[in-house]
TrEMBL record:
GO terms for biological process: cell wall organization; cellulose biosynthetic process. It is a multi-pass membrane protein. UDP-alpha-D-glucose binds at E106, D135. One of its GO terms (cellular component) is membrane. Pfam families: Cellulose_synt. This is Cellulose synthase-like protein. It comes from the Eukaryota. It comes from Quillaja saponaria (Soap bark tree). InterPro entries: Cellulose_synth, Nucleotide-diphossugar_trans. The active site is at D135, D459. It is found in: Endomembrane system. The chain crosses the membrane at residues 23-41, 47-72, 664-684, 696-714, 726-744. One of its GO terms (molecular function) is cellulose synthase (UDP-forming) activity.
Length: 751
């Protein structure tokens, strides 16, 4: 082995921008504390609006302190894939998991592209295997993958021969339609051929729904008369790598649809991940796994190498790295991120920030895991209880002898180094057994080993349990980005996704996995637990945010105040706070390359989110805690591929906020109507006389106008037509609620 010092696999980078940001952050904290103190000493002389404002600001301050704990010491890594080959005699094997759940919401063409990009990564083919879990149990998805594996025989060698950088064909052919002049004639011919072949593949997939049912030949027989929520397991080896690492060899490709029965919970994605873990453990048992959602294609052919640089490099330095998380990034992004769904700042700031503590949280996709960590081992013990007796193994991992044997190998580091021919097919029978829906009953799956159950955001929970055993994780942002996926555009889909996140995160906060408690009882570092608390609190923020947004309305219509008068010296504090807070957001956005407009859009969407999806998420959790409902995982709609040859989005209403009759749009509409009423009353002088000279002033008016600006898409929606207009019934409900609020406010202020 070469000298590791001469060829470092990674370097830790000091982030220069940190000092400026820290100065701003401390100023904000100072101003927030000043405001709190000022309020506190004036509580007696003011009405209940001051008390409410005080409580909200107290929350904002605590939230800010948690933010600072999370982002104070960011770390970045630079990885050197070229050093990996020089330093490591043999690369470790990696099992790659792709999950899909619904052929309509997640069109197979998307899954196919992700799979093709994974099959084509720069890594020895005999050390990779690709498993696709299909919770939709769709013959069309299966058929698409079979056809894709035929296309892959041409596509993968083509990518490697010409060192193509973008190996998801739909992106490759849409982003780069013309070949530059210096490219050889041979290339141009092959490029044409490849494009034709890809178009044929797309054609076949489009026609698949006509073909497949009538043609349920031997291979498709398993899909005959099945229901997606009630069927036995289907496992198909679509492609087996018989060539090893020879040129033109392709990794194994395996299709899995685990057994489902209507009366048994299948635990959504977490359940799928656990089935994938077990089946791959029998078939290839790689020491590392990668998991991506069906829409997250590998955008950088060296992604696996980058991940291994950190996995192996950190291991050499005895830093117990359990997983390497890449940021989720999105393709076809609209100009200036109108829906604030690119999450660029969030991922960068939180990922690198937590990277400086115990490591980033697990984000559910774009993540490489160490298999033995998934099996519950801790950095100091290879196994869970210190002893690996057979009964213990069975209790934890279920009663498949083949599987517990493979677990033992993994925990003692005896995994297969390369995948030999034959291992995949020979373990099919055992694989059927471990994919059955009764297999997990009375085992540790979902609560001690594998992906954890009990939250719609299984990812954060699973990651936190790993950190709680004392493991670290690492965040990696190579250039070009490792993975790209699609994000729901504005409107209903986006709201549903954010609502699920809100519920899922809160479910963890109110469970026995609450981070502060976990920190006290395990090896979760204290600052890491604060970072998790901050993440899990994401949706609770909507309550103080909403109160704060309603305060100016109340003050304007009852002619009271919750802020000092503009001519008082104290007014400087909230005004400075407002300005510097937004300056800090702007600095952060500009630094990661966003425009001013994008920064504004992000900010605005945060407010809209708070009033809609987060609020509903909180209500959902309350209902669950009361035992009145169960949370479900509603799969996000993945848009059909929309870019044309220039890579521009062609969707008709791209960039426009869309509405539906979902009740989720009622609260933001109510809030907007309230602000408008309050402003009209203030401008027309319809307010009652102020008590004791504490009437509403300019600052209250400005606050209210600010909220209207933030909810501008809703203001447009009031007058919009079709999907871009708020449905009349929603407006009616919102108006009803607004009237009730106005009436109650008047009553309260009279008392
Ligand atoms: O019963 C299910 C439901 C979902 N999925 C898969 O889970 C993934 C994520 O679903 P999606 O609807 O795209 O949710 P997002 O909100 O976009 O997902 C983010 O948030 C989830 C937690 O809420 C994480 O699991 C994801 O990895 C993360 O990308 C997709 O591949 C689905 O096919 C399943 O396999 N089985
Ligand atoms: Mn998704």
């Amino acid at each position: 082995m070469a000298n590791p010092i001469a060829y470092p696999l990674y370097e830790e980078i000091y982030l220069k921008h940190v000092t400026v940001r820290r100065i701003l952050d401390v100023i904000i904290l100072f101003l927030q504390l000043s405001l709190l103190i000022y309020r506190f000493f004036n509580l007696n002389s003011q009405g209940f609006t001051w008390l409410l404002a005080f409580l909200c600001e107290l929350w904002f301050t605590i939230d800010w302190i948690l933010t600072l704990c999370t982002i104070w010491t960011p770390i970045d890594y630079k990885t050197h894939p070229d050093h990996l080959i020089k330093q490591v005699a043999e690369l470790p094997a990696v099992d790659m998991f792709v999950t899909t759940a619904d052929p309509v919401l997640e069109p197979p063409i998307i899954t196919v592209n992700t799979v093709l990009s994974l099959l084509a990564v720069d890594y020895p083919a005999d050390k990779l295997a690709c498993y696709v879990s299909d919770d939709g149990c769709s013959p069309i998805t299966f058929y698409s993958l079979v056809e894709a594996s035929k296309f892959a025989q041409l596509w993968v060698p083509f990518c490697k021969k010409y060192n193509v950088q973008l190996r998801a064909p739909f992106r490759y052919f849409s982003v780069k339609s013309t070949s530059s002049s210096y490219e050889s004639l041979e290339f141009q011919q092959e490029w044409r051929k490849m494009k034709d072949e890809y178009e044929k593949l797309c054609q076949k997939m489009e026609e698949a729904h006509k073909l497949v049912p009538s043609d349920l030949s031997a291979d498709y027989e398993a899909f005959k008369d099945i229901k997606s929520k009630n069927h036995p397991s289907i496992i198909k080896v679509i492609w087996e790598n018989k060539k090893g690492f020879a040129e033109g060899a392709l990794p194994h490709l395996i299709y899995i649809s685990r057994e489902k029965r209507p009366n048994l919970s299948h635990h959504y994605k977490a359940g799928a991940m656990n089935a994938l873990t077990r089946i791959s453990g029998l078939m290839t048992n790689a020491p590392y796994t990668l998991n991506v959602d069906c829409d997250m294609y590998a955008n950088n052919p060296k992604t696996v190498l980058h991940a291994m640089c950190l996995m192996l490099g950190l291991k050499q330095n005895e830093r117990n790295c359990a997983f390497v998380q890449f940021p989720q990034m999105f393709y076809d992004e609209l100009k200036d991120d109108p829906f604030g769904n690119q999450m660029v700042v969030g991922f960068e700031v939180i990922g690198r920030g937590m990277g400086g503590i115990q490591g980033p949280a697990y984000a559910g996709t774009c993540c490489f895991h160490t298999r033995r960590v998934i099996y519950g081992s801790s950095p100091s013990h290879p196994d869970i209880n210190g002893k690996l007796r057979n009964e213990v193994l069975e209790q934890q991992f279920g009663c498949s002898k083949e599987f517990t044997e493979s677990v033992t190998k993994t925990l003692y580091g005896l995994e297969q180094k390369t995948f030999c021919h034959g291992s995949v097919l020979s373990s099919i029978e055992a694989a059927y057994k471990v994919s059955g829906c009764n297999y997990e009953l009375n085992t540790g799956w979902g609560n001690k080993v594998g992906w954890f159950y009990g939250s719609a955001t299984e990812d954060v929970l699973t990651g936190m349990r790993i950190h709680a055993r004392g493991w670290k994780s690492a965040f990696c942002m190579p250039d070009p980005p490792a993975f790209m996926g699609c994000s729901p555009s504005g409107g209903p889909e986006f709201m549903i996704q954010r609502k699920r996140w809100s519920t899922g995160l809160l479910e963890i906060l109110f469970s026995k996995h609450s981070p502060i408690y976990v920190a006290l009882t395990s090896k979760l570092q204290f600052r890491q637990s604060l970072a998790y608390t901050w993440i899990l609190n994401w949706a609770v923020r909507c309550i103080p945010e909403l109160c704060y947004a309603v305060l100016p309305v109340y003050c304007l219509i009852t002619n009271t105040s919750f802020l000092p008068k503009v001519n008082e010296a104290a007014a400087m504090v909230p005004m400075a706070l407002f300005l510097i807070k937004h300056l800090e957001k702007l600095v952060n956005s500009l630094r990661v390359g966003l425009s001013v407009r994008a920064c504004w859009n992000n900010l605005r969407m945060k407010k809209i989110n708070a009033a809609s999806s987060q609020l509903f998420g909180v209500l959902g959790v309350i209902l669950k805690l009361l035992g009145l409902s169960e949370t479900v995982f509603e799969v996000t709609q993945k848009d059909q591929i929309t870019s044309n040859d220039e890579g521009n989005s062609t969707k008709a209403d791209a960039g426009e906020f869309t509405f539906s009759d979902s009740p989720i749009f009622v609260p933001p509409t109510t809030l907007l109507l309230l602000q408008l009423t309050a402003l009209i009353m203030a401008f027309l002088g319809l307010q009652p006389p102020a008590h004791g000279g504490h009437g509403a002033g300019l600052l209250e008016i400005m606050c209210s106008m600010w909220v209207v600006l933030c909810f501008w898409p809703f203001l447009k929606g009031l007058f919009g037509k079709g999907k871009q207009g708020i449905p009349f019934l929603t407006i009616l409900k919102a108006a009803g609620l607004a009237l009730i609020f106005l009436h109650l406010s008047m009553r309260v202020s009279m008392v």
